[in-house]
Amino acid sequence: MVLSKALEAHVESFISRLKRRQIVGSYEVAKETAIILRQVVSTTRWSDATVLIQIIKDLGRRLSAAQPKELAVGNIVRRVLKIIKEVVRGELETDDIMGSGTSEESDDGFSDDDEEDNEEDSDREFKSILAQDTEDHTSDAIPARPKLQTESSMFNLLVDQHSDNVDYTAKSYGMKPLIIQEINEEIIADLETVYKGIADQALEHIHANEVIMTIGYSRTVKDFLTKAALKRSFQVIVAETSPTLQGQEMAAALAAVGIETTVITDSAVYAVMSRVNKVVIGAHAVLANGGLVAVTGSQMVAAAAKHHATPVLVCTALYKLSPLFPYDIDLFNVCVTPDQVLSFSEGTLIDKADVQNPYYDFVAPEFVNLFVHNLGSAPPSYVYRLINDNYDSEDTIL
Amino acid sequence: MPSRGKQKQAHGDNDADQVLQAVILSDSFNSRFMPLTYEKPRCLLPVCNVPLIEYTIEFLAISGAQEIFIVATMHAEQIKAYIESSKWSKKNSSSLHIEVVHASECLSVGDALRELDARQLITTDFILVGGDVVSNMKLDKALEAHRSRKRSDSKHTDKNAIMTMVLKAGSSYHPSRARGEESVFVVDPSTSECVHYEPMEPFPRKKRIDINAEIFERHAEIECRNDLIDPLIDICSVEVPALFSENFDWQHLRSDFVRGVLTSDILGKTIYTYISNDSYAARIQNSQQYDSVSRDILKRWTFPIVPETNLQESDIYQFSRGNIYKGTRVMLSKSCIIEDNVQIGSGTVVGENSRVTNSVIGKNCKIGNNVNIEGAYLWDNVVIEDGVSIKRSIIANDAVILTNTTLDNGCIVSFGVTIGPSVALPKYTRVGSQPQPKDDYFDDEEESDEEEGDIAVSDIDLGEQGTGYIWTDKGDNDEDNDPRNLKVASLAFDLKDLSVGKEQGDDSDSASELGDLSDSDDERDSVGDTWHPEQSQILAARKVEEFKRELEQSISRAFAEDHTVELAALEITGLRMSANGSYDDVRDVIVPAIINQVDLSKPMPSIRTVLKKWGSLIGKVTHGKDDQVHVLHILQVHCADKEQLHKLFLPALQLLYDDDVVEEDAIFRWYGSDRSKQLGPSATALREKATVFIKWLQEAEEEDSDEDDE
To answer: Segment Disordered: which positions (chain A) (predicted)?
Structure first.
């Protein structure tokens, strides 16, 4: 491995923390992965992009093998790969525009105004129609959301042949600071604002005097509801989420910000559902078909909601979006120690009984009505588009 | 030692982020896993296809240990080679430093710790574990509890605390407890100080625990806990190895060290417990635990330490429903059935119509058609041919089981052994690749006692092409360990089979003990009721008799070899101490014995010489008025017993009085006591004879007092 010693130690410690599950929660994992990858870009020696891509891929494979169930690791790796490719393509195309800027300072200057989009840089080569307004677009500093709408045309599908004619092996100076810059802004800064981005849309979805049901503890959902509670008054019913009882924690947090909160047992979910106007849940990961991996009990809540024709909203950040497809619905589940279900001290009993304690549920896409992500909202059938926008299809398998 | 301890301690106080050291005692110092451990150290035996020590190091790494010393005795080279090639010794991989300490001379845990002390490797509080711990516990809380006791500002300051035993709450008949080596911890629940430790072997059944009454004075509340799983994870202070050096006869960590420290008034040290309720901890010290811990891992109690965590970097396991773990390139035939709790290593092939349940199969194994594997542990490169049936057995690397062979519960097949074709191994057969050595670990004489009931071990047929040697189950060289304790600790042992074996030990109620063991808790609670006072009295009486017999022998030897009184007295004291006998019993024996030495043909001069010499011996075992009265009673009874001895009574009384063995008060009390009048007619006659002597004594006394008055 070509990683420097200090970095290798950092990677190893991250891997062992992943394995030991000392670092859990996709947000923390995603953040640490992004920081490690940024360091890889900045500290390793690479002469051209192919080498760098290979290094990142190798490392990504190692990291995601350490904890295959933490899909956020692979997602961030794919994002970084995409950024690298875009930068290479963008630089090759616009060499003369920013050719003078090989030093870091000028790079900084360049990308300051080019807030969100090297993607658009890259698109320029084949999307000259759109490319013309790129400059104005960015200088207006409009948040990234509209971009997705502009890009969602089918045009891409027909013309998208770029990968063939880009030479990644070309020696490229000044690419490094640009890539680092992009990782900083596209991924790390993005991670810092995900909760706000999702919460800002709360008022569009939650109306006065509604009854909302949720399950589990999700910071995204908590911020979402908290934000809505600033303007509107509504009621939240939280399923306690046995055996982890995260729901109780969630209820305490919601009650603390003044939301009228009720805790119910998981078994009461169906009975209460008829009174509920909307179900809002978080997700651990969203898969390629629009299905989601969410805290155990979510499938039950979603099924009850479907039966009562209650809309189900899933609050999820884009980094949770994974291009992997759930061929086996248990594939991304984690079975943790059965201790919480049946105490280990029941010695003679546990010898005879098999006890399972799955941590997650797989919720099929047909149970979900809308994904609220940090850049907007989309139905499950639109997830494939989001995936295409965020990742390069070459990188689906690391 | 104290100076050194204090010095280090002071050092430890101000230096919070010092290196956390850990010591792994890789050797088991017993032969539970023979013949497997004959070729491979126990800590390298695979558990769920990962060497056992990997779990232990992982556990220490989770707990933040930075420096690990592995004390290796048997097969030290193998351990060293393994560690050097493992991921732990890769240069920049971790901040963990591992050093293998060769200690080839050690025969026990005590020796290993003395060796550590001699090398001065330990500089701070350290974690002491066996090389066989499987745990997902994070020790930080226990470490903090241990350290805070040393600080003066904490709630329960105890500067004398030298050890914290980390225990896992279970239940009294939990499969993860070491069968045959259970123990009871008596704990003060308010401070979690351990005030008493009692090992509880099931055989012979212990019916009572003696607890020092002082404990009740010092502690308002105590808990006796028989539900704890002891994974032998101890947080020790620096003084611990030094204490072992001071007490050179301590061998075991629990039964010697913990007991020694807790019962000693001189050491003044205390031991604490840390009882964990939520995380998993167990150790594999016998094959029964190998089975139960493997199953716990497969059933994910040890999460996140489960097969798909891939402790060894080369492994890639995938988890699927029903606790089935598959490595890469596993080929399962279409018709084979893989049921619950199965782990299959990479490159393994399973043939048509074969069935595998509750088992672990290693890498690159070949399993033929129509094979039935149930609760078995197959290690790497094992070949199982068609039609074989294996139940709850361990089969080591490279072993070959030929067609239509059957292995019943509890078989252990060692490395490279071939068995079959078409034979049936009976229960608990152990097959080694080398003949069983006959060194002092395996005492030959025991063989006949230890054979498995009606199966004569040598009759077991390994088949036409079979290679390998039958090993018999020998105990440790620990004499006072009941062999039945070892049997219940072995793989898949069925308690019903104990009654098949010969009656062992002196208890006649082994059937009822079995009932206790195999049944559930309700019977357990009534342990108090099963204690019969009469029975224990009979037992005690038997013991006293034996003691007296030995005493007689030693005294007659003293007479025959004409020992000095001092020597004889020393010998008697020694006997009394070892048998825990009373002085009453001693006198019962020696007074008649001395009188019997008198030459009856010329009684008077002979009794004078005899008593002149041996009278003082009686004096040495007589310590008060009551004792003296007792001597006189014995003398009276003994002399009354035989016609010829009648005339010896008075002279003997006189001589004893002259020697100050008995004083006049005692003689008066004897004379006045009811007992002296009720010992039969001839004895009463002797008492009458003594009347003269009594009178003389009384007169003498009166004279004395008269003189005093004047």
So the answer is: 95-144
